[in-house]
Amino acid sequence: MLRLRLRLPTLGQRLAPTATTCGSPYLSSVRFKRSAAKSARVSAASGSDRSAALTMAIRQIESSFGKGAVMQLGSTKIAERVDVISSGSLSLDLALGVGGIPRGRVVEIYGPESSGKTTLALSCIAEAQKTEGGVCAFIDAEHAIDAHYAKALGVDIDALYVSQPDSGEEALEIADTLIRSGAVDLVVLDSVAALVPRAELEGEMGDQQIALQARLMSQALRKLTGSLSKSNCTIIFLNQIRQKVGIIFGSPEVTSGGTALRYYASVRLDIRRKTAIKEGDQVVGNETVVKVAKNKLASPFKVANFDMMFGHGIDRQSELLELGVRHGLLKRSGAWYSLAGNDEPIAQGKAKAKVFLQENPDIAKDLEGKLRQMLFEPAATQEEVEKAGVEADSEESE
After folding, report:
1. Distance, first Cα to last Cα, the chain
2. How many whole angstroms from its chain centre is CA 362?
3. HAMAP family this protein is in (predicted)?
4. Which of 131, 197, 269, 348 has the largest count of CB atoms under 10 Å?
5. Rg (CA), the chain
6. Same domain, 187 and 290
7. What range defines the domain where residue 129 resides?
């Protein structure tokens, strides 16, 4: 006797109405459209939930840390063009790409002895006092500032605040207090190598102190960077170079104070003497080369060349002549110089042309203003600057 077994669905089981069981492909397409619409509604709901969650998170952050703790980048002053302080050298301002040293940042100037580090820093102070009417401070850790030389460079010594601290901790604490006040525009610290930790001062001569200065600088920079940005104050660290022992490949030069400063610095300037400038047998200055070793605001590795005269600082008249000819604001025919649009010569030879600009400060100021407008204004593109330089070079060759 043949027995047949039928498997019936148990209680709770449902027979899915597939295309095979129902025998119609239309029903399967309808189910697919319904599931797609449902998933779209779920994703839209999840998107609105994400936006609401983000708004709630921002409100919670602002209630804990204050309004402005989290902002959109385009609605903040961070997106605006950075303010700068002129270095006192047109060539260096051009090499920096933004027209000077940035405000609210850390800047390092390093180089060999007698290369012009302090002179360049004092020139920045003079420019900040003249053009911005800014308040400046000079922390003299080396105890070697010369008031007469600073005055000769154009620094208003009566308005310059000077501190000569006894230890590195004291110097950095003074700098931090001045920056946090929000009333200082520029602080110069001369120099990192002279920041002696208090433990080293209290110890015996010859005691081995491991990386005290590097740890001191690392801690100080962690505190200073936030204060600098909020107060829009710039700090310039002057630094010396040392020689590594046993280096075969690569440069043996290294700056003192550890590696923290080179990370925190937005701009690093390597300044060197190139050749001596002589009048007869007497050396009256040096041709100086400054390389932008690091630049977070523009292209790095650009080089600026200018003359630095003893007792006078940066030779601005020489820069005006060179850049004026290069960008078509001055004409040079042989040894004769003349203003653009005026065929009448102003002087014969570079020395007499410099004297002419010294005796006519209005012409020099107008020439510098035109150069800055041409080179540093946003309307002047890089192509226009290069075109002006090419046209000036072609006129010289003719």
Report:
1. 121
2. 31
3. RecA
4. 269
5. 33
6. yes
7. 80-202+211-314
